[in-house]
Design brief:
The complex is a heterotrimer of chains A (about 260), B (about 325) and C (about 290).
Chain A lengths: L4 E10 L2 E11 L4 E5 L6 H8 L7 E6 L2 E2 L5 H7 L1 E3 L12 H9 L6 H14 L15 H13 L5 E5 L7 H16 L3 E5 L3 H4 L5 E6 L2 E6 L1 H6 L1 H23 L6
Parallel strand pairs in A: 3-8, 3-9, 6-7, 7-8
Antiparallel strand pairs in A: 1-2, 1-4, 4-5, 9-10
Helix pairs in contact in A: 3-4, 3-5, 4-5, 5-6
Chain B lengths: L1 H24 L5 H26 L7 H17 L5 H23 L5 H20 L9 E2 L17 H23 L1 H11 L1 H6 L4 H27 L1 E2 L1 H4 L2 H14 L6 H19 L7 H16 L3 H27 L1
Antiparallel strand pairs in B: 1-2
Chain C lengths: L1 H31 L6 H19 L3 H24 L8 H21 L15 E4 L4 E4 H23 L1 H11 L1 H6 L4 H22 L10 H16 L4 H21 L5 H15 L8
Antiparallel strand pairs in C: 1-2
Helix pairs in contact in C: 1-5, 1-8, 1-9, 1-10, 2-3, 2-4, 2-8, 2-9, 3-8, 5-6, 5-8, 6-8, 9-10, 9-11, 10-11
The chains are: A alpha/beta (about 260), B mainly alpha (about 325), C mainly alpha (about 290).
Chain lengths: ~260, ~325, ~290
């Protein structure tokens, strides 16, 4: 199989509600791929299908050539797909290090080895100083990085990040972007759902745009952002105008 | 690393050694005190067994008297009806309890919150009533032990309680060291992760249901061992004694009052509650029946009002306060310099 | 046919009694999301009130249910204020605190009133039976009256919850305490009243029961347990669900007791409950 992650004609229905309709795209190995779209576009639902929380109503998902749609979440995690949650879910009464160790135990049977692996993820996500704090006591920015560190500790090939910068301050966003870049440099493929364009555009290699459950565009950020369908359906006319103004102001060295 | 783990083992090794030497000192000559000590160790063992599933895995089961009862009946049946030593009966009881735990756990772990709690109440009632009408194990009358020869072979001592004391110490030692090992291993981490967030645990590759079932089976087998000990110590079993909601509550209460999900909580809880209960029962007897249980109930209410995390919670809070004070002190000094 | 009808009706009376006992528990569970473990002991305490009013002052249970309900309203309020309030939102704490309370009430009764069974004689309804079809079907009057009380109380409770301003405030509080508070609902008052009303409902049953049931310190245990089953089987705080579950449990008890063996009736009740909850984990009317 040539492709790493393949989404094939995935449809997800909740009763009458159609969350995703016939969505197909690929995520090639080693890339940062962004999944964007307005609220209720079906991004998180699609994510939950990939991570095994829902079985798609129709369609299939393949990972390294193996069909994964319909498998339970823990089996998918064992195949090398880790995820973070949009609403952070720290294991509150456990320390930050212990949280990460839970992830690390996936590939390390002994506590000593798991601790060593966890320490590395701790460093990678700028969490050293909170090592022994209960995870429930962290600030939101640190909690979001803890989500990433914990997922990372499972040593994934593919990392699914669900709105990992939503609700963060600009310095926290900056930290997170640094972390994501580091991960890509480690060779981890990343699929991220994002709302904040500024966070995703500069680092993504590929963008997929969903609207009302359907894929309306796919390609490099610069292509997608100029796609008229995307501009009207997702960005809205106001943002499109702002973008044009920004471009004019910045001259030829366009911000995006 | 090696010396570190040895250092960490010192407190409990030392406590075990002190406890093991107690009978030699002659302090236990009074049979009431040795009875209290045996009860402390038995109840601490029960609480520690429950702690595996209730504390670490966070599945608050009110059904553990079923497992306890099966172990008790296992030992008693071997002794009274089969005229054997209690050991094969206890072992069979433990295995049966573990199997039953899986059969019970498989469907009930789907239930959330109060629904799970009430389902475990119902399971206790079903078993209680089945044993009440099961003639082979004596029905409502239960099983009475014959007079047995003293010694380890029969696990029975009539003249002094020292034998039971060592028996209880071994029982507690086994369960305690099991939980201690588990706490530091992958198994323990996974159980805690499931308690703190099952979906999160699953996203990290944890087969939550399998781990919960394993924890339940282990916990049930240990509870059955405690039941077997109880039968030997008590010299009789009947459904209302071992297979009741009150017995189930004992597992939960001691753990919670001591400190749920902590290594030392069960022992602390038992060490404080059992003497309190035994002595109030002995000394307040003149006030009529039930006064000890009224006091016990009041203590539960009070602890739940002020420190639902139990004695370990109090210790933690005190430690935090001291650290905060120390930190404030340091800052103050720093300011002066 | 007569026998079948007899068994059916007996089950129905029991079921309606269970419904009346469980109504208050259901209300409290629905609004505060806690199990009042002392519910069965509330019933027992109310029965003693009614028994002693009858025994000492010759007041009939048909009258003294009012006193019993009032007493349990107060006990409910006191329980909320001094036992439950501080434990709200702390995992198992409310359940264990109320378990502690159940121990206190039960053993206090044991200590004060001895474990003896106390039977109230000379009540108006004592031994009265309506006989249909030349004695083919017998309807004991006290059970029938209790069943009618049950329907009236459950009806009133349902009406109050769905048709009155107070009921809407209760429902808003049940759904989201914070939101209700922001909307101007005095949620603390709602909690107190819910506990009081929950107590009063079981108080009605407790007041009537001495007409046909002996009073003793352990009388509440089984009723309490059955009330838990009723509420869990009916589904989270649903009054119609509780009524349906209660009747179902009454019928199972009656039919299993008659057609299998009396000793099996509660095994059947708890067994069926376990089956139902496996199929519908949140009860018949739960969501």
């Amino acid at each position: 199989m040539s492709e790493f992650l393949q989404i094939r004609n995935v449809t997800m229905k909740f009763g009458e509600l159609l969350a995703d309709k016939d969505v197909s795209f690929d995520v090639p190995k080693g890339m940062i791929c962004g999944l964007i779209g307005p609220n209720g576009a079906g991004k998180t639902t699609l994510f939950n299908c990939i991570a095994g929380y829902y079985a798609p109503t129709a369609g299939e998902i393949f990972f390294e050539g193996k069909r994964i749609s319909g498998l339970p979440p823990y089996r998918i995690a064992r195949l090398g797909i880790a995820r973070t949650f949009q609403v952070v879910r720290p294991l509150k009464e456990m320390s930050v290090l212990d949280n990460i160790m839970v992830g690390a135990f996936l590939h390390h049977a002994s506590a000593a080895e798991a601790r060593k692996a966890a320490e590395r993820c701790l460093d990678l996500c700028f969490l050293e100083e909170y090592r022994n704090k209960p995870a429930g006591d962290l600030t939101i920015g640190n909690k979001k990085r803890l989500e990433v560190a914990r997922a990372l500790a499972t040593n994934p090939k593919l990392l699914l990040l669900d709105e990992c910068v939503a609700g963060l301050t600009s310095t926290e966003v900056h930290d997170m972007v640094q972390v994501i870049k580091r991960l890509r440099d480690e060779g981890i493929t990343i699929l991220m759902v994002e709302h904040i364009m500024e966070a995703i555009m500069p680092i993504a290699d590929k963008i997929v745009v969903l609207s009302h459950g359907e894929k309306i565009a796919e390609g490099s950020p610069s292509v997608v952002v100029h796609d008229p369908m995307v501009i009207t359906a997702y960005l809205g006319e106001k943002f499109a105008r702002k973008l044009a103004e920004q471009k004019a102001a910045a001259g030829e060295g366009g911000a995006l | 690393m090696q010396s570190d783990s040895i250092k960490r083992a010192i407190p409990w090794m030392l406590s075990l050694a002190v406890l093991a030497l107690l009978p030699v000192t002659g302090l236990l000559r009074g049979s009431f005190l040795s009875h209290v000590l045996v009860m402390i160790l038995l109840n601490a063992s029960m609480a520690q067994a429950w702690n595996i599933i209730g504390g670490y895995a966070g599945q608050v089961s009110f059904g553990h008297s079923v497992f306890f009862g099966i172990g008790a009946y296992g030992a008693a049946y071997a002794v009274t009806n089969l005229k054997m030593t209690p050991y094969p009966g206890a072992l069979a009881g433990a295995v049966l309890a573990a199997v039953l735990a899986v059969i019970i756990g498989y469907p009930t772990f789907k239930l959330k919150g109060h629904y799970f709690a009430i389902a475990t109440f119902a399971i206790v009632e079903v078993f209680h009533r089945l044993f009440m009408i099961w003639e082979d194990v004596g029905g409502a009358v239960g099983l009475d032990y014959p007079i047995l020869k003293d010694g380890w072979r029969n696990f029975s001592w009539s003249r002094s309680k020292v034998g039971y004391f060592y028996g209880a110490l071994i029982l507690f030692g086994i369960i305690f060291s099991l939980v201690r090992a588990l706490e530091k291993a992958r198994f323990g981490y996974y159980l805690k992760a499931i308690r703190e967030g099952q979906e999160t645990a699953e996203s990290l590759g944890v087969d939550a249901r399998r781990y919960k079932l394993a924890a339940m089976a282990l916990s049930a087998a240990m509870a059955a061992m405690c039941g077997a000990f109880f039968a030997q110590y008590n010299y009789r079993v009947d459904p209302s004694m071992v297979l009741s909601l009150d017995m189930s509550m004992r597992f939960v209460l001691i753990t919670i009052l001591g400190g749920i999900g902590t290594l030392w909580g069960p022992l602390l809880g038992a060490a404080i509650l059992i003497p309190l209960q035994e002595y109030t029962r002995a000394y307040l007897a003149k006030l009529g029946p039930g006064v000890d249980l009224v006091i016990f109930g009041l203590i539960i209410i009070l602890v739940m009002q002020f420190q639902p995390k139990g004695i370990m919670g109090m210790i933690d809070a005190a430690r935090k306060r001291r650290r905060k004070l120390a930190a404030a002190g340091n800052e103050h000094e720093g300011g002066r310099q | 046919m007569g026998l079948f009808l007899q068994v059916l009706l007996d089950g129905l009376w029991s079921g309606l009694l269970y419904g009346l006992i469980a109504a208050g528990l259901s209300l409290i569970w629905g609004v505060l999301d806690i199990i009042n473990f002392a519910h069965g002991e509330f019933l027992m305490a109310g029965m003693y009130v009614s028994f002693f009013l009858g025994f000492l002052f010759k007041i009939d249970p048909l009258v003294s249910w009012v006193a019993s309900a009032a007493f349990l309203f107060l006990l409910g309020v006191v329980t909320y204020k001094f036992v439950v309030k501080r434990t709200l939102g702390k995992a198992m704490a409310p359940l264990l605190a109320t378990f502690g309370l159940s121990m206190v009430i039960k053993n206090f009764a044991m200590n004060r009133f001895t474990p003896n069974f106390r039977i109230l004689s000379g009540t108006i309804m004592e031994g009265k039976v309506i006989s249909l079809g030349q004695g083919a079907v017998m309807i004991p009057v006290p059970n029938l009256v209790t069943a009618l009380f049950s329907l009236v109380v459950l009806g009133l409770l349902y009406w109050m919850l769905t048709r009155t301003r107070f009921g809407w405030a209760v429902q808003a509080t049940a759904m989201d305490v914070e939101a209700a508070r922001l909307m101007g609902v005095n949620t603390e008052r709602i909690f107190i009243l819910v506990f009081g009303i929950g107590g009063a409902c079981v108080g009605v049953a407790a007041g009537l029961l001495p007409s046909y049931l002996a009073t003793h310190p352990d009388v509440g245990s089984l009723f309490g347990l059955i009330a838990f089953m009723v509420v869990a089987m009916g589904g989270f705080g649903s009054i119609p669900g509780a009524l349906l579950a209660a009747i179902l449990i009454g019928l199972i008890e009656s039919f299993a007791g008659f057609y299998i063996a009396p000793v099996f009736k509660y095994v059947a009740v708890f067994g069926v409950y376990l089956l139902v909850i496996m199929i519908r984990p949140k009860g018949l009317f739960g969501w």
